[in-house]
Amino acid sequence: MKFKLYWADYARYLPAPNKPFVEFAEQPTTAPIKKRLPKGVRARHLNFQDERSPFFCWPDSLFTATFAVGNTKPTIISKRDRSKTFVLGDSGGFSLISGAIPYSMASWRQATLAWQEAECDVAIIVDVPTRAIDNPASGYSSLQQCLDATIDNTKFAINNRTRADLKLLAVYQGRKKPEADAWAAATQVYQPHLEGMAIAGHTRLEIADWITRFRDMMDRSLFDTVRHIHFLGTSQPRFAVLATALQRALRKHVRNDIDVTFDSSTSFTFVHKFGQIITGLEASSKISV
Questions:
Q1: CATH of the domain at 159
Q2: Domain containing 224: what range?
Q3: Using one digit for the tens of pLDDT, what is the confidence trace for 68-112?
């Protein structure tokens, strides 16, 4: 099944595969691997971005620099047909503050930008998530520290980018509305130099607040270059409806080439960590707001 034929003008969900998956689906099906798979199934059949897959084709994905930078093994991301697929490159900010990345900030942002320009269509600038404030081991204890580091990385990306067709997204963070407002006020001044926005942090799903910020940016001509808006870390069906409504409204009233996307790594995490498979949704008559 080719899902691209069915989503028309819907906001697009980007599955976020992990490193073991993208490597496994690109490797040859050796005899040991063949024994682990159902009869007739090959490793490459799991490459959901390949339209030749006998299972289904979902051409869009999000992949993080955490898994990509320094990895020399072929993956379904590095070997994809770029004329038929789409990859949004995440910067791995959360992994950076959790200590999972053995790089300095200066070397990480440089390596991340290089990978994004080599393999991605849209890229998120390296940020320091505000959740770092609640993690003593992160080295960041205040909103201002997180913001200053992210602004510095934003300036670096603007000044060192080399690919004109790569859409760079400014990152917006915040644990609560006052933090999100302060972060947005400081970041918006750089938005005219970038092609989109990555909405992150605990307030990322507060769509009404973000619409208010978008309108304020439009009134001050800070939204003119925005072509892509991505909401990080969610796959809630009800949010997909809101994201689709947002995309349709922006395309109707602002410009017709704005894309809205959202992502989640949950399904890959469940398989890798717990050996569990998500098979679908269970409908309920109860509606929570």
A1: 3.20.20
A2: 3-274
A3: 999 999 999 999 999 999 999 999 988 888 878 889 999 999 999
